[in-house]
Fold:
Amino acid sequence: MKETVSSVVIKKEWDIVGARQAGRQLSQELGFGSVDQARIATAISELARNIYLYAKEGEITFEELYDLPKVGLKIIAKDKGPGINDLSAVMEDGYSTSGGLGAGLPGVKRLMDEFDLVSDEEGTKVTTIKWARP
Amino acid sequence: MSSLRSDMQDYKDLLSKYLETKDEAILYQAEQFSKQSIQQNISPDEIVNVHYQALKDIYPDLHEQIEGSFKFLIETMISYGLAYQEHQVLREKQIELKSEIGVAANMQNTLLKTSVPKTHAIDIGVKSVPAREMNGDYHHFIKDEQGNVGVAVADVIGKGIPAAFCMSMIKFAMESFSENQIYPQWILDSLNRVVSRNVEQGMFVTMFYGLYDVYTHQFYYASAGHEPCFILRNETREFEEIDAKGLLLGVESAVKYEQLNTSIHEGDLIVLLTDGVTECRVDGRFIEQEEVLNIIKEHEHLNSQEIVEYVFKYFERLQDFQLRDDFTLVVMKRNSSLSV
Structure:
């Protein structure tokens, strides 16, 4: 069982903070510990910054997941940008960090429990889930 | 996770003991804890959190501002944690690559293996050591049906794996030549065609090829832009430089190489080398060719293999046991007919 909770439009750099704020609020309510909250916020930052930098405009959507006894948070980052040509390259360690751009998508994958990435000329969609540790 | 939990209990015990006693022994245990954590791939942000949780347990009424400051610290540590994990993965990849290169280097050694021909006319010694794992130098011996000895010394401009690939190609090209076609000019003409056809622009090979006729004691030679060869004449006790004109292999396909020859007398000593020997740098200065030749001259009473081993050890020590370039040295000494 799941329910769509909210979404944040990413257009300006300032919107990244809004997305983090929304994600943190939800992860607190779902009972995530302080490290996991910080991890989720960092993952949201990365996803939102990718949208802001490469697609100019997009949306981050949050879904609370109740797969009892597990509870989790699903984060979907969607944009209509140019898409990613070489998916394996961006998922390779060292691809973005070597330029000092941040943790990149491999970082997001590490911070979260589940990760999926679809990209074509229509845009990019990253779906990722973090489960709360009971 | 369970190990993290028991580690957390340990951490809490250590911390509270330390806060009570300020004992150095406990700090030592903390050091052990951090080493263990590294072994278990626990990232820095986890450690900060372990500290925060332990502190809350020891002081249940921790000041709100202190709590806030720890949340702030954890937040700033997350990216360090990621960088740490990425570092781990890259390190594993590096170890994997290193072992693959090790296997490739072994394979190269097997592929490029050449045995020193035994002949009563000349005593041959050879030493070839790569600066890194893959050797960009190459040497090869051929003995024809009459017992004449062909010797090639080559250097690929460039190092490492691409150079090694190129060398394997040259070796197989040379093996495909018939044993009756080992005159230097013919060999270099043919190799040049192979290299220019098969190697991308920008990779060049220098080679010195010599053929020792064991009946007439003539040394035939040709060079594709390689270092000159030296002959220590028994009569004059002086080195004579022998060189032949020729472009590097692979520059132009329609090149004809010049072939020259010289008589080798009893006790004469032929030296073939690569620029790793004459251009090795020590403390910012290049070692002069003369220095190499002098060492050889001082030790010419030794047999050829002992000479090359001695020269290598000498230069290895000069360079602080860190070769800057691949090193290949071949020494061929004509035996005196009395000793046969």
In short: The interface with chain A takes residues 1, 45-46, 49, 52, 70-71, 74-75, 77-79, 82-83, 85-86, 89-90, 93 of chain B (CB under 8 Å). The radius of gyration of chain B is 31 Å. Residues 173 and 191 of chain B are 7 Å apart (CA to CA). The first strand of chain B starts at residue 122 and ends at 129.
